[in-house]
Amino acid sequence: MSEYTGDHAQAGIDAELPALETWPNQFKGYRIKIEMPEFTSVCPKTGLPDFGKLTLEYEPDELCIELKSLKLYILAYRNLGIFYENVVNRVLRDVVDAIHPVRARVQGDFTPRGGLNATVEAEYRAETQT
Known about the structure:
The model has no long low-confidence stretch (mean pLDDT 94). The chain is elongated and about 50 Å long. The chain has helices spanning 6-10, 67-75, 84-99; strands at 22-24, 32-42, 49-59, 63-65, 103-113, 116-125. The chain is 23% helix and 38% strand.
């Protein structure tokens, strides 16, 4: 079996994806939870499909994510070679870059492969100014 390479590890991290559109938030101090139960991507080493459920939870500050653009963004992963861990961290990074939330969390629950389930979580909290 061939070794995993740096190219495998970097796959998909900087791929061009559709922009996440936003709209102005009107309230403070609440959370939004979005579940994406039909997430798919591709293993960058084997080319086999990966399936899972992504959950995005965030507390908006000035902006919220427009849901149709999020759907198109998530669909773009369908043919993208990227590891589970990179999916979760890439989605979090892109959400934070788009809306600068108070906090955000992305969880990926990926379906079994070889008898193993994988759950990956990444979280962001805005730095508070003193």
